[in-house]
Amino acid sequence: MPIDxxxxxxxxxxxxxxxxxxxxxxxxxxxxxxxxxxxxxxxxLTGPADARGLDGPLVLKAWGPGLLHKSDVGAVRLGISxxxxxxxxxxxxxxxxRQGIEPRGYLAEEQHPGGTELIIGVxxxxxxxxxxxxxxxxxxxxxxxxxxxxxxxxxxxxxEDLVATFPGAPLLTGARGxxxxxxxxxxxxxxxxxxxxxxxxxIGPDLAEFECNPxxxxxxxxxxxxxxxxxxxxxxxxxxxxxxxxxALFAPRRIAVAGASTGKSGFGNRFxxxxxxxxxxxxxxxxxxxxxxxxxxxxxxxxADVPGxxxxxxxxxxxxxxxxxxxxxxGKVPFVQVISGGFGEMNAAGAALETDLAAAVxxxxxxxxxxxxxxxxxxxxxxxxTPNAPTRPGRVSVVSQSGGLSGDIVTVGDRRGLRFAKVASxxxxxxxxxxxxxxxxxxxxxxxxxxxxxxxxxxGAGLLRALRRADGRKPVVLLRxxxxxxxxxxxxxxxxxxxxxxxxxxxxxDATGVSLVSTLEDLLGSLAYLQGHPEPPAxxxxxxxxxxxxxxxxxxxxxxxxxxxLELTPLRPGLRARLRExxxxxxxxxxxxxxxxxxPVSPAGLLGxxxxxxxxxxxxxxxxxxVHVNVAAYYNYGKAGLRPLIDAMRDLLERGYPxxxxxxxxxxxxxAPEDAALLARFAAERGVPLFRSFDEAATAIAAAQRFDARRxx
Length: 713
What we know:
Helix 5 packs across helix 6 (about 185-195), helix 10 runs parallel beside helix 11 and helix 17 packs across helix 24 (about 695-710). Helix 11 links the parallel strand 18 and strand 19 (about 365-370). The chain is an alpha/beta fold. Among the domains are: about 40-110, ATP-grasp fold, A domain (Dna Ligase, domain 1), CATH 3.30.1490.20; about 245-475, 3-Layer(aba) Sandwich (Rossmann fold); about 540-710, Rossmann fold, CATH 3.40.50.261. It has 24 helices and 30 strands.
């Protein structure tokens, strides 16, 4: 939608030669007024007489090129009487002329009596589009950085949450004897600017930066005292969402592989072997110009020769040849995956080939995954990208930008008991994006838990839409690798400088309920915990109870929970007394952490017995229980390896307490390999997530509790 011509027509270049346009303050304030935002009464001046009808004291501002930051150059004067306005005009004009600045005009406004000063701004993030910022305003905005962000468009609930949780929120409820401000008016202002149908939506993709600093809030309302708008008419348009059914991608009827050789084994041959191992005795074809078969698989010369047509074409050819094969398949195959590298991730020549590859499928019904990725994995659909892949299907689906990490996710995740519904690697993602796949997986009846690995995305708007769709319906755990070029963007406002990449991602997480993690181990651990505990928490349960050996380990467990934002609710005094009556806590704590001597010589029922009063009648039900053990103790003081630990875990599980359970096996590297394998196998079969560190366990528990808070029935 083209921008309102009145907005752009009165603007001027931000700097000489800059394509961006600065819109005069009085024009921006007229727009705000049209959207129901209060601004001071004012007049654009061509002479002092134009200020008639305004009541002093007045504020005088100059506007025009070179006056983006007016206070820095003396283009703002406060407390001017109506009689003193002519002299103030002359003084300001002389002062600016000495700096080589010639204003286009002046604005006089009635001075606001004051209140709590805030900043409300919007900046166009390179990944997600417009994001709105709320923080403490005034001249110390960047110095204090008491701000928070949310992606646009804001719902009213988003705006209310932002007002309630940004770092300056306590000042709105009244401080040092001041009355509380009108928070509802502030919410109205945020929605008017950044909500559906608001100012940001009206301006559209040309909006580069918008800022009101300060917005003054009082018990009577909210008023925007200053307003700044920068347009970028050359901004890229927002990509439209695709509506693709990916069923045939994950469960194809017929597959073709391009790149398998009759003379030497390469990637194509490895895929043929993996597919045959996955059970493909028919419906699998190799593309080869001369051979009748490759590695025992029927071969055809072109994709058009596949009997009945292929649902999925996997291309493992050098980049230039890959473009040719994809062009031949375009419109004939629903899904093409190019695993080959040598495209935009390499150099300018590769980028040109990538452009040709995208053009080959543009305008057709063929969707392309990649290039520079590994493939698709789905045990139920016999989709695979590696020999000896797990065959047991599950309820976890992952979209990974990295092919190598997608392989790690499948193989290492399987060892940790993860059972996958679908895993897709998308590489450079020139067509199919994270957002496309995630949006479809939200509705996939075979998927309960979603994981994401990405390094960047060309379709941030689509990703945001997908995450919003998943919010409360299916938990999402997201691992980001690398960083974007966001920091290189030139900014002209406080909002732009404060809306850093990390803060934007946290804002997206806050708006959508996604759990951000920082390591592959945290991703896998969180997915395993969510997989193992799909049901809603027991009614009335809350908090985390830590139980295990005392001493420093309990302190470290508490610290890890605190870092993850988890609450270790203390046991009630009556329960503590009951636990001591039962013989627990001699010389140790029964508060929380609950310290019990679990180890190689303790009874198998020790953990279960200690938790019985907690989950019994008149107990104190916890939502999550973090059990920690010292694996080294089973070798220092015992002779049965980890079998006593397995017996203790079995007893605890058979009690059926209504709480999610995470087990931290500290010092697990000292375990004998056969014992470690036995424990891992038991945990995987019983759905008990094992963690090697407190932080990993706390991160997983926090992901589950984050979803609890947003779960919809």
